[in-house]
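REQUEST ID: PR-0412
SUBMITTED BY: lab tech R.K.
PRIORITY: routine
TASK: structure prediction, single protein chain
INPUT:
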Amino acid sequence: MEQFCVEKDPLTCKTEPTKSAPDVLLPINPNAARFPFCIVWTPLPIVSWLAPFVGHIGICQEDGVILDFAGSFFVNVDNFAFGATARYARLSMDQCCFPPHLSGHTCKTGFSHAQVGTAISWNDGLRSSMQKFQHKSYNMFTCNCHSFVASCLNRFAYQGYISWNIITVIAFVLFKGRWVDKMAVVRSFAPFIVVMCIGLFMAGWPFFIGWASFSFLLIGWFILGAYCFKGLIEC
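STATUS: complete
OUTPUT:
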């Protein structure tokens, strides 16, 4: 299996020759924070208390080590920001395109895929996106952890698709993901329920209307940015 560098500067690392697929698909091990070939999600403090559909997200190497874009010019390696993984969605190598050369694409978007950026293996794609985002400024509303994961999926041409964005990544984790355990569900939704109960008790319907407006504006911003004004949140 390909070895992935965990030093701060991946450009100075020496790695083993790459292969297109791992010899053995390692099992998921939440206790050791190992989620091979997975997208992982955890709730954000304060933000997820008001909008439980919002959280921090990362993507994992072949050996299960988590990578996440956690701040400007910084990609975490094996130190998932904001806590342990609560939800994960496993990806399939069979739905990736790793062309050894320009005419070796297995997806239908060959030339467009080459323009977006390709990879010869899973870890190679993660490394390329990691190097790219180590030169990016973090902004929750324009260039965030979801942008990093979308960049990786686009390099893989995952499911033959090279237009992954914040919305499609969120939807994938929402509909394809699984909870790590029951406590992960409690950790994700208990603060939101408590805040909603306190808000409704103290302020009544005006609080609910304010919360609904906030959620509508937040969702609307990302939908408009992803599909109507793409330059707003592309990074």
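NOTES: The longest helix spans residues 205-228.
REVIEWED BY: pending
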